[in-house]
């Protein structure tokens, strides 16, 4: 697959990527390589990665606990302390080997340590390959509130090797598929139709096109002033639902993709009521989502708590919740205000 050139860094694919990584390490003469993993990527991905790393530089492993619940400042402090104790300096390199939690948190840690050291993202889940590792967003959660603390910082390189997908569950593959659906609905309808109509998906092709789309958007709007906001489709309500389930002790957590899929159905419904998005296309999106994801029953008694989570969305301005809605497929409108009763009605529609 052809290398994609982002603003200041390349996204390399498959085996070619590791030679490029070795060249970069040699060229920049890094002092120490810190590889950030969790217990899952240490067991399943590190053994695949390390034979491809050709270097005589000192390598130090730093392991954190997996899961969104650990994507917080406390974990960052632990990693900063570990880097310090292991003799990290401004010529150190951070390599993040993992899913979205690892790439988001690792990029943030690297960007703040000694006012910034270089980092490289090696995503190992579909979600992180098509979204989290590309685009320059880093950060952590504040309690259950998603990505409240962070900054824009670009890696030196992103390596996408789909062999790592053999190490993740089908549920995680489905989680990443939600982001590909998002790109299809908002930007390139062929992607959406391919997922809808194909029994056997060409995952390499879908990943490459998804990264291309995200890169095209970010190149035009790196700091999310306009166009890049389309990448939030499904995420405004989806993040609130994800946060609510993360906080609820009596409910099983949803994956990011499961929550975003619900958000996309609901936001399509809102679009039909406010912007005239065709009702048959609302039904089509709902049908495709429910063909991939198990139905989540959003209880009416939970609606008020989900609405409370919405008030903390990082895209809010002056207390107003902003949605990305659709006039049609590939035709969006940003910064839409939606009445509370319509948001609730959209969740009832998802349930119906």
TrEMBL record:
Highest taxon above the source species: Bacteria
Listed Pfam families: DHQ_synthase (PF01761), DHQS_C (PF24621)
Name of protein: 3-dehydroquinate synthase
InterPro entries associated with the record: Dehydroquinate_synthase, DHQ_synth_AroB, DHQ_synth_fam, DHQS/DOIS_N, DHQS_C
GO annotation, biological process: aromatic amino acid family biosynthetic process; chorismate biosynthetic process
3-dehydroquinate synthase C-terminal domain location: 176-316
An MF annotation (GO) of this entry: 3-dehydroquinate synthase activity
């Amino acid at each position: 697959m052809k290398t994609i050139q982002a603003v200041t860094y390349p996204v390399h694919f498959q085996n070619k990527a590791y030679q490029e990584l070795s060249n970069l390490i040699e060229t920049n003469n890094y002092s120490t390589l810190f590889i950030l993993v969790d217990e899952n990527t240490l067991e399943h991905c590190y053994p695949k990665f390390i034979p491809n790393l050709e270097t005589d530089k000192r390598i130090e492993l730093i392991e954190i606990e997996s899961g969104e619940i650990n994507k917080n400042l406390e974990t960052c402090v632990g990693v900063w302390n570990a880097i310090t104790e292991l003799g990290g300096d401004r010529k150190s390199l951070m390599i993040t080997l993992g899913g979205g939690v690892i790439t988001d948190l690792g990029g943030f840690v690297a960007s703040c340590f000694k006012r910034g050291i270089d980092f490289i993202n090696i995503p190992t889940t579909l979600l992180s390959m098509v979204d989290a590792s590309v685009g320059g967003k880093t950060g952590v959660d504040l309690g259950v509130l998603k990505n409240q603390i962070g900054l824009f910082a670009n890696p030196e390189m992103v390596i996408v090797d789909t062999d790592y997908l053999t190490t993740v569950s089908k549920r995680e593959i489905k989680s990443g598929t939600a982001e590909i659906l998002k790109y299809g609905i908002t930007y390139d309808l062929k992607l959406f139709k391919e997922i809808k109509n194909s029994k056997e998906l060409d995952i390499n092709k879908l990943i490459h096109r998804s990264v291309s789309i995200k890169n095209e958007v970010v190149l035009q709007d790196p700091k999310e002033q306009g166009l890049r906001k389309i990448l939030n489709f499904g995420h405004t309500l989806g993040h609130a639902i994800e946060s609510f389930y993360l906080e609820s002790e009596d409910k099983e957590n949803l994956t990011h993709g499961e929550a975003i899929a619900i958000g996309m159905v609901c936001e399509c419904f809102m679009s039909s009521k406010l912007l005239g998005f065709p009702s048959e296309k609302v039904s089509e999106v709902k049908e495709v989502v429910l063909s991939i994801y198990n139905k989540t029953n959003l209880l009416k008694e939970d609606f008020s708590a989900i609405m409370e989570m919405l008030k903390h969305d990082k895209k809010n301005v002056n207390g107003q919740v902003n949605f990305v809605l659709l006039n049609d497929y590939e035709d969006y409108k940003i910064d839409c205000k939606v009445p509370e009763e319509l948001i609730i009605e959209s969740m009832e529609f998802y349930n119906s």
